[in-house]
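Look over this entry.
=====
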Amino acid sequence: MTEEAIEQGRGVHRISTRVAAWLAWSLCLMSVALTVASLILALLNGRTLDEIFLTWGPSIASLAVVTVSFSVVGALIASHRPGNPIGWVFCAAAFLQGLLNAADQYAIYALLTNPGALLLGAELSWLEAWIWAPGLGLILVFLPLLFPDGRPPSRRWRPVGWLGGLSIGLICVLTSIVLWPERGPALVRPGGFPEFEGWRYAVLEGLVGLALQMMMFLAGLGAVISLLVRFRCCPVARLDIRVRAVHPQRTARGNRRLVGLACHPLDPHRYRHRHPALPPL
């Protein structure tokens, strides 16, 4: 390989890293902007500071803190390691949560607090009814499944990701189809969704509310188990992570050798040619 080709490859890498950093921090800024907008709209909707900060359950302020934290962490990871999906999972989950919070408060203001003052209130009431699923699924399923190197522990764990993705997709598609005719003030009034009958009730309560959400939580449980198995089978995986963080120039072959030596019992006959001084076990 000539020096010109090497320099060209380095230039492409720098450009891709720069683009990834720009995209990651743009998502972070949009998440922060959506969070600020949701807080302002909550005040305009008549929420008191006690209701914003001290309400029982997930408050608007606590969700805002989680959104901003996830967006900053995701931008930091994605801008330095654009090839690792973990950073993009954080960025996407933060953006979706910020969009959910802002759409909820926007719809309440446009449809209940000051009807007709803002456009697209009905559409955003419909959007916030199902946009929670991909944000929750990313954190519940794909974050523990892909942590820390952006890949499942092995191919055997890939069905966990397929199960999580299938449940997220079906929740979004079915809920959006069923609630599209009902978009409007009925979806944002206190007390939850209106009473449905017939096939709509069966889809929302039976399929989405029970079966598909249970499927998502089962996928999340499988993802957590895969994370525990990953670190149980490789007790020094955290050491390998710290080594790669301190010495990023270490080759992938060297990393696999380090993890392999740590994860498997040392066989003196297998490693004698590599470690002649190793005493027999």
In short: Residues 4-13, 254-281 have pLDDT under 50 and may be disordered.
